[in-house]
Amino acid sequence: MKYYSTNKKTPEVGLQEAVVKGLAPDNGLFMPEKIKQLPQSFYDNIGNMSFQEIAYVVADAFFGEDIEPEILKDIVNDTLSFDTPLVHVNDNIYSLELFHGPTLAFKDVGGRFMARLLGYFIRKQGQKDVKVLVATSGDTGSAVANGFLGVEGIHVYVLYPKGKVSNIQECQFTTLGQNITAIEVDGTFDDCQALVKAAFLDEKLNNQLNLTSANSINVARFLPQAFYYFNAYAQLVRQEKADNIVFSVPSGNFGNITAGLIAKRMGLPVKRFIAANNSNDIFYEYLQTGKYNPRPSVQTIANAMDVGNPSNFARILDLYNNSVDEIRKDISAEWYNDDKIKQIVKNTFEDTGYLLDPHGACGYQALKDGLSADETGIFLETAHPAKFLETVESIIGHSVDIPDKLKEFMKGRKQSISMNNSFAEFKDFLLN
Ligand SMILES: *Cc1c(COP(=O)(O)O)cnc(C)c1O
Fold it and tell me: Structurally, what CATH architecture does the domain formed by 82-104+222-400 represent?
């Protein structure tokens, strides 16, 4: 399969190059040249299939031309060592719990898949000393770092905004050691992302180093996120509730929702999508006005969505031929400020017993606000509430159980390198 750049100013590349490069040389994002419609027989039988079986069919549609079936099967099975259960919350609203992986956020799926795929390519090429750069607003860093931990020939650099990730999130990528280095940037997530992008566009760095990116811009992270949309559908089929499905996706960089849009293109029967945002309402504004005005992100309690210039917006434009009217047919948007998010978490917990995290809360409320009686709403519960412990505990007024997996991370010693947000310093650091 070939991958083209959304900027269309560079030639198409193969899977390996798309994965290793991350970002296209013209600063665009890679897109698969074909989005295959899956056969009706697959949809007819999906209710009888396991998550791993479903995911393999989806993975095969993208990666089957480039990776041997047995290897791809192993990568899929190994990635999905956990389930994504659909849990009924109330009325016609369900939570797709994506937090049962090792770092308790949905990014484990893409992070683990990408780590395994890149490991395979590196072994195949006999490459050494590959540097993976990843900017994180909180959860990417841990998913990627844990996915790559101990993988030979790869060193991961996690850039995160100082003081803007939760204590537990920080523990998950600063305590690992080995081939993982955490870099604490005096700036915002957008600054971290800009540093990573600048590194890929820097000729000297690219000539001297083997750089690759693990942000949601990478196709090996982004496409596997389609797996669980299909798995959610299969679970609704089993409950005979699979008509008029609406997915509400807490969105920051818009990688997760874009994977859902791709699933729809593959024939997944989804009626529509909602992009649920915090106060960083750039996409909401775009749908209202037809104008895309990126701006610096503001800090919120749903910090993994504090993004002022969502990378994957370019992919959405590409999928819909730059037509805001076409986009509006499939996607609407909602946004909630911190006070509202707190109120949602508190009320939902009191009314239903279901504890939302601040990101999932936006997704849930967007369904509460906009779902009609004949629709079935699924919001993506993108992280476990205990990842935002202080915030969630102060909202509901009592303590939250911390899963054992999370407790383990909290025992480690934090280690990170401090940096300002200038590219010169970062470049120097990488070169030395
Ligand atoms: C990363 C993240 C998001 C945003 O996902 P995007 O793919 O960047 O839109 C939402 N919630 C949580 C918990 C996250 O970690």
Answer: 3-Layer(aba) Sandwich (3.40)
